[in-house]
Specification:
The complex is a heterodimer of chains A (305) and B (297). With 305 residues, chain A is an alpha/beta fold. Chain A has ten helices and nine strands. In chain A, the strands form three sheets. A four-stranded parallel β-sheet of chain A has the order 2-1-3-4, with helices on both faces. A three-stranded parallel β-sheet of chain A has the order 8-7-9. In chain A, α4 links the parallel β3 and β4. In chain A, α2 crosses α5 and α8 crosses α9. The termini of chain B are far apart. The chains are: A alpha/beta (305), B mainly alpha (297).
């Protein structure tokens, strides 16, 4: 008699838990934390309606310089999956996970991506090359990103594995279409004219993918101060190569490049988005929109060259 | 012929060819003329670290400007000036009304301001480095920045010239000034506030156009070394301006030819002048050593 009731109880518990795992409702969303806005968008795409994504460094925030708050530590602790970019893009994320005592699944989105070295700046021969963390600037790398995210989500929530795979595969198609379109667009521009100037060289992967030459007046770090020689070389180069395409980034110090382009007699193009999405009303509210915006602006600028 | 052309390339060419070099030069020289003499007064008042304190004191104003008007440079700069002035003014009032010295009350005020500023920026949820956006680089000075520095320099030099006696008295003998002022019916703290205002507008104009390091460095380093050279105040003021100007020109040229960051290079040149002054100036180390045996004998 007693045994029977126990069995019955166990059975009902099993069916109940089974019910819950198949029928994901609002209370049962998988809590996922992404380190910065672009990853947040990708996680939302892959996770669909099964996940609740929280982004630490939000739109227009500099993920390089982000300082997490205690509330962020609490958010991470409450997550079942923590998605980071890796490639030393957000050194604070690892520290945060450790100090919060996070025990869940950590996904390094860039795992498996062929890393690029940071382009050495002209005149800056320090003899050490650093890995460029901005791998998402090549849409083909993002295929790897979404696959990694899908695998990570599936580990934490095996019931959704098929849905995550399907979402990732569908998004990969969009990414490849975006890449093909961009490739065609830039191939139509003579390679000698595929030159632009930006204030922050976060676009190494993009430049390598589409054969664009990017010149930067500042180093990789947003806070490094340029030398007079470097700026002078750049102005000479602009004049000499007749570059008309100058772009500023959405969050670095734009004063220098605006002034520089005035000196060299060129027009400044729209802001490009490299490390963060724009707000919902901006031109780069999602990863795909950001890439569309950047690629269109770059191509339009080059046609002026 | 060949020699003259190489000297031209070395010293004049960079300025002749590039407008950004000319603007950097003019703004640096303007700051040298106006800020370095103020630095001498600051060292005399034992407030050499005021400049550093004020770099933090502007933060709440900058944050407020950002919260109200978004990423607008004029709003953020104005906010910075207001909060810098407010911090300096409150610190001045506290030091006059209580037993605290000027530097102590200023230290307390700027730390409070920094805390308020950081809290405001965090509340905003944005991780933008506001100060980084606001603070300029000597190579990125635009026409507006040039006008700002030149305007501030003119106002500050003229004010210093007109009220020179008051500033000197207030620095060296505040009690005499207070006695004299009371007999005349004016208020002695006006001098202190006026002086601090000059310092704040010079610094904020400097931050915005040339960067923090440049603004504070050009104000203080030449001033400190100038005190080693002369006994008399006018000579010290003049010496400080000249040293700041030399450091500015040499630093820009070195940054151009040696490919080094401009701001740190200019301050580095001021540092070299300081080291030289420490060694060979009348108040420096070598003359002291040479003097000593005579004294013993």
């Amino acid at each position: 008699m007693k045994r029977k009731t126990l069995k019955l109880l166990a059975l009902s518990a099993l069916t109940a838990s089974g019910l819950f795992s198949t029928q994901v409702n609002a209370a049962e969303l998988v809590p996922v934390v992404a380190s910065f806005s672009i990853l947040g968008d990708l996680v939302q795409v892959v996770g669909g309606e099964r996940v609740k994504v929280t982004t630490l460094a939000g739109p227009d925030a500099d993920a390089h310089e982000f300082t997490p708050s205690p509330a962020d530590a609490k958010t991470v602790l409450g997550a079942r999956v923590f998605v980071v970019n890796g490639l030393s893009f957000e050194p604070w994320a690892q520290k945060l996970a450790k100090s919060a005592g996070y025990k869940g699944e950590t996904v390094v989105a860039s795992k498996g991506v062929q890393p690029r070295q940071m382009a050495a700046e002209p005149g800056h021969d320090h003899g050490h090359a650093e890995t460029d963390p901005h791998a998402w600037q090549n849409p083909l790398n993002v295929v790897q990103y979404v696959n990694n995210i899908a695998a990570g989500l599936a580990k934490a929530d095996p019931g959704g594995a098929a849905a995550y795979q399907a979402n990732a595969a569908a998004y990969a198609k969009q990414l490849k279409a975006l890449d093909a379109q961009a490739k065609a667009q830039f191939d139509a521009i003579a390679s000698a004219r595929r030159k632009v100037i930006t204030s922050h060289d976060a676009f190494g992967y993009l430049a390598a993918r589409y054969g664009i030459t990017m010149l930067a007046p500042q180093g990789v770090n947003t806070d490094s101060e340029p030398s007079a020689k470097h700026v002078a070389q750049l102005i000479r180069q602009i004049r000499h190569e007749r570059i008309r395409a100058v772009f500023v980034e959405n969050m670095s110090n734009a004063k220098l490049i605006e002034q520089l382009s005035k000196d060299a007699g060129v027009r400044v193009g729209a802001a490009l988005y490299s490390d963060a999405l724009s707000g919902a009303s901006g031109p780069a509210s999602s990863y795909l929109k950001m890439m569309q915006h950047n690629l269109t602006q770059l191509a339009a600028g080059m046609t002026l060259n | 012929m060949n020699e003259t052309s190489s000297v031209w390339d070395l010293l004049i060419g960079p300025f002749a060819e590039f407008a950004f070099m000319r603007r950097a030069l003019v703004s640096t020289l303007a700051l040298a003329v106006s800020a370095a003499p103020l630095g001498v007064f600051l060292t005399l008042r034992r407030m050499s670290l005021l400049g550093d304190a004020l770099t933090h004191a502007v933060l709440p104003g900058v944050a407020l400007g950002f919260m109200l008007f978004g990423l607008s440079l004029p709003a953020m700069a104005l906010g910075g000036v207001v909060s810098g002035l407010l911090v300096a003014a409150i610190a001045g009032v506290v030091s006059r009304a209580t037993a605290l010295k000027e530097d102590a009350s200023l230290a307390a005020m700027y730390l409070l301001a920094l805390a308020v500023g950081v809290t405001m920026i965090s509340r905003q949820g944005s991780q933008l480095d506001l100060l980084h956006i606001l603070f300029g680089s000597a190579l990125g000075v635009d026409e507006q920045g040039l006008l700002l520095v030149a305007g501030v320099a003119s106002v500050s030099v003229l004010t210093l010239a007109v009220f020179y006696r008051g500033f000197v008295l207030e620095t060296f003998d505040p009690s005499f000034l207070a006695a004299a002022a009371v007999s005349k019916g004016s208020r002695p703290w006006v001098w202190q506030q006026l002086f601090l205002m000059l310092v704040v507008i010079n610094l904020v104009a400097g931050f915005q156009t040339l960067g923090t390091l440049m603004a504070v460095g050009l104000m203080m380093l030449p001033a400190v070394s100038a005190r080693l050279w002369h006994e008399s105040l006018p000579a010290q003021l003049f010496n400080a301006s000249v040293q700041a100007a030399i450091a500015g020109v040499a630093g820009l040229l070195l940054s151009y030819h040696l490919d080094t960051p401009s701001g740190p290079t200019i301050i580095g040149c001021a540092g070299v002048l300081y080291l030289l002054s420490l060694l060979v100036s009348p108040g420096g180390w070598l003359p002291q050593i040479l003097k000593r045996p005579h004294r013993v004998a």
